[in-house]
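step: validate -> pass
step: tokenize input -> pass
step: predict -> running
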Amino acid sequence: MSQHSPHRNRLADEKSPYLLQHAANPVDWYPWGDEAFAKAKAEDKPIFLSVGYATCHWCHVMERESFEDTAIADVLNRDFVSIKVDREERPDVDAVYMEAVQSLTGQGGWPMSVFMTPDRRPFFGGTYFPPTNRYGRPGFPQLLAQLADAWKTKRDSVLQSADSVMQHLQAPKGAPGQSDLPGPEVLTGAYRRMAAEFDRFFGGFGAAPKFPRPHGIRFLLRYHGTTGEPNALAMATKTLDSMADGGIYDHLGGGFARYSTDAEWLVPHFEKMLYDNAGLAQAYIEAYQVTGNERYATIARETLDYVLREMTSPQGGFFSAEDADSEGVEGKYYVWTPTDVRAVLGEVDGDNFCTFYDVTAKGNFEHGWSILRRTMTVEAFAERLGIGVREAEQFLAQSREALRLARNLRIHPLRDDKVLAAWNGMMISAMAQAYQALGDIRYLEAARKAATFVASEMMPAGGLLRRYRDGDAAIAAFQEDYAWLIPAFLDLYESTFDLQWLRLAKQLTETMVQEFWDDAGTGFWLVGRHQETMVSQPKDYYDGATASANSMALMGLLRLAALTGDTDAQDKAEAMIRRQTPQLERQPTAYEAFLMGVHFWQGPVKQVVIGGRPDGDDTAALLRAVWQQYHPNTVLALSDGAEAEALIPQVTGRHVTDGQAMAWVCVEQTCQLPTSEPKALADALALITR
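step: predict -> pass
step: emit ->
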């Protein structure tokens, strides 16, 4: 392997934890780059592209079964040029070739396995392949032999397949739309589709496997807020309750796993992703604002406290994920037996805890293990024990903490400690929103520290880099990085009124438009004008596990326009909505986050200006009146001098230097009389509905 030994391939020089996991494989892995493509061309070999991520269970399985097998590695090294990609570092590579795999097989997932020509045109693909024929899939060695033979003896057929895939990849990604801008009926249509898919027994949407879909929940809360539709709220709260009761939630440490393999939220794939926990924290915070249910506030706090404790670097950046596996076994870190519990809590307390959290001798998971889940209310548990509800709550809280500390002695799952710009934007927003709604200064400090880290370490000379790890910031940012950081900086401005965050939001918006805007007016490309040219140009509209880059760009543009009067941002947002309206009508549940942007655009958008001393108690009281209620379509500014007036025209003339802080509420250029009373401000905001 050139200068590398069979047990230290080229991935050893990379920063990605996922690539480093494969650095000792006997496979002669290359990172994505010109060296690999040149070798494939010079030796006339097809490329094997393997895409995954560090906390992916089936990626680990395929590595153990195939990539650590010297016989399989010998075939790969002889007949192919093998490239390994971390999808979280390179969403462009992932997006292009996932579309190819889906066109070839009708499905996708990770690990993603793609075979392509030296000029990067895919001709065959799939996901996980076992080492022998099973699961209805061909064995990987057999597949390699067939593809190597086809490359040598049936080249024309292989190239025809590549041409066919390329025709699909290069088909127009949506022509400029001529549709009208949507009315409220597009939101009603989305609500009705969600109602048709809703699982009334266990919450959530559709059949197993079940994904949390926090943007869908947040859309339902918005729809309920403007229409009063009780079923929209009921679907949201049923789903939130079921997830918080289920095994997908970590009852000891806080935070949610990736998704549930079953309909009742019991058995998750145990990896914890930063993006899931950011989105779900926001959903629980908003549900708390709508309902006043303290349990939602508790779940949000426990989730964010998990992030502060386990997923935050000393410099302030947020790490990416934690693995599903420990000691090579999925979920082993998280599961319990009655004997395990009694060893920590004692016989009586242990049995009582097991009753509440469904820990049984038989188990509710593999190998007689149990995943903690709530099977009764605290009230029913208290009645069963003959104690008061508060005493029951204290017992459960103390028991959970004792078991969490005991669990800490186990071998912890791997943590992917790279810092990604986009995902940090998600968590900055969640932390800022938690500070506003819950009043806990720790969350504001965490948001500010993370944002400062991104601005100082990942934004050299006005640019933006995607990934930071081990002292190294690298990889030019993609559109999703801009799209998630813009609302994060706006959230931080609306939490601190420090104008540097508003300036950064404007700066990133200008760069996003310059680098990524499609001149045909159909939204933003994922890859910028000055980045590596891919075999096709991906454009991200579909709202999957996270909101799409275009959905977040839409919300950022609309918020910036409402706050600063930026007409170009408003025009581009409306062009995106016009382009997307036919898709919203046909398949609304694929665009739930985009629909939140449409909801904001349809309004009414409430513009609130506070005139007062930034550190004044009277100013703080007015801010609490805004923050602690549910007003999703609101922009907030503080009038504190000429600098703010230059950035936010609507604050002009509303600066209060002496006397009582005042609040102005404006909708569509019409402002109400100012008030200094927090209750009057809260009442005024509550009265403004569609």
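step: describe -> Confidence is low (pLDDT under 50) at residues 1-5.
step: cleanup -> pass
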